[in-house]
Amino acid sequence: MSKRYNPDVDVPEYTGRYAPYDIIKEGTIALVVVLILVLGLSITFGSPDDKAITLQTWSKADPVDFATTAFSELDGSSAVAGYGAPYNTNGTSQHWGFIAPAKWLGVHIPINTATDFVVSPLESQPANPALSSALAQWKGATSATQSAWLTAYSNVSGKMSFSGDRVVVPSAKDGPVPVMITSLTQMARSGALDQALETSKGFYTTDFTKPLLFLSDGTYFASLAQKGHLLGTQWGMMNETDSYPGQAWLWLYTFWYQVSPFNTSASADFLVWGLMMILTAVLVLVPFIPGLRSIPRRIKLYRLIWREHYQDL
User: Fold this and answer.
1) Angstrom distance (rounded) from CA 24 to CA 93
2) pLDDT tens sequence across 89-102
3) Which of 15, 38, 91, 104 is deepest in the core (most CB within 10 A)?
4) What are the residues whose beta carbons fall under 8 Å from the beta carbon of 71, sequence distance 6 or more?
5) pLDDT by residue (tens digit) across 111-142?
6) Ranges of each domain in the chain
7) How far, in Å, CA of 277 to CA of 259, rounded?
């Protein structure tokens, strides 16, 4: 008994006419046209290869913002300090209901912002009597005393300025905090902080997790993203800065950040990632989904594309 014909799977035998086709000629024409378009568009809309933003770049361009961020790392009020897994247990991390992969995996990149971003880098510096005394005073104080110093510094930090290579704030009962913040800012401006945070336990110092997290807590990097139209609210996403509107082929990804609930959720990155995985799976599985795989055959768009062939049938 012959097998029943299935239009979604079986390919019918071709009975139409044949015509000569010069694939070399057509391929050459296509290659030349695409080459001209690529070169022309890259010259017109090419993205500049900007230098990477470092802590040194940031601290030189906006030392007050850097010092303010450094203080937020020290007092534990920064975004990273309260993020949660995989860095610490101070937040819920991004999740959707009970689905929280980061929490399930736990803290596997432990980061204490006060220790890792401020105290430890300062301890790696060459001997400096003022700094050594400040660090000893900080480490020897109780948590209550440290909190009192941080509160006092926070009350005057709104009047912070930078002058003579020093962070200047009004006098307050803030203990060693001013010396520590000024020293860290000077360290960053020299480039030493980048190296201190990049250094890992292995031979290669290529782990940029800490400097990138530190950088993300400030407003300087975000301001550069805004100028380059790269914020989520600006539909921007690309490998390099500037040249609005970014990678056009990523519009579907950035689109979701503009609509609810993604544009108001603290877990927007996780939600958008999950949705894109679902959409990608649907796309991959199109040939196996009954009904969906039949759409091209039912709408008969192929007859328009191959109209010269079908007009002879």
Assistant:
1) 56
2) 888 888 888 888 88
3) 91
4) 150, 153, 154, 157, 177, 181
5) 999 999 999 999 998 888 999 999 999 999 99
6) 55-221
7) 18
